[in-house]
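Figure caption, in words: inputs first, then the predicted bound structure.
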Amino acid sequence: MFWTLLFLVFLFGALVGSFLNVVIYRIPRGESVVFPASHCPHCGTNLKPWHNVPLFSWLFLRGRCAFCKAPISTQYPIIELLSAAMAAALYLKLGLSAAMVGTTGVFLTLLALSVIDFYYKMVPDSLNLFALTLAVVSAWSPQMLVENLKNALLFAGGFALLRFYVSYYLYVKLKRMSPNLKQASWVKNYNTLPAVIEAMGEGDIMIGATMGALLGIELGLAAVFLSALLALPAMLLRNETDASKQVPFIPFLATATWIVYLFDTPIARFVDALYA
Ligand SMILES: [Zn+2]
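Bound structure (zinc ion present):
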């Protein structure tokens, strides 16, 4: 029974992952995620149902389109496998429950947001708001619903304030190097052109709210700290003045949230020990 359920959850995760591939490909292009049916991006031929089986189709077709033999990105099976593994891990942690289904939805949406941020440097509001709403309502009791909402609001506020501080710091620092640098958009100076120096996207604020709802204050702060640690090597290697080389931050926030959520007990014990 246990193994059957685990296998079904894994399969469900792979199916959602297959849908995430569609989301990741279509949302940044402004296309509908429902219509038209799945087709090869190279030759445009509609896929047959058996070309659409998560993981197996890619292996069976040896990573090539069945019609034009154009290579299919390894991103497809990787996202499917990752989604399946994440769903299975959450099942092992939470058991089969409404909270488990909701939380799986939140983390798989964060996965799609991470990949989209990484490739396209964009954060679609549709996915971001979906993750946030689901994170708040995935609570298992009305008391938790209020608690989740409170934590979401706290973290959204914290992220928004952090954005002001970091943007101001970057502006002051970079102003010395390039004197005609523009200030951030919220600095009321109607003579200047739109801003160029704004640290963190607005999208990160919503991700912060999602993290607060999922993790609560103590673990949420641990996740923010961990994400900064994870991002540090990439931050040190980047070129600060070149906007096109900005480090996408959502993959780091999402990875840290996943790690802290999965290992909440030992991490909470570690954080408590720091204060003791
Ligand atoms: Zn093709």
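DSSP finds nine helices and no strands in the chain.
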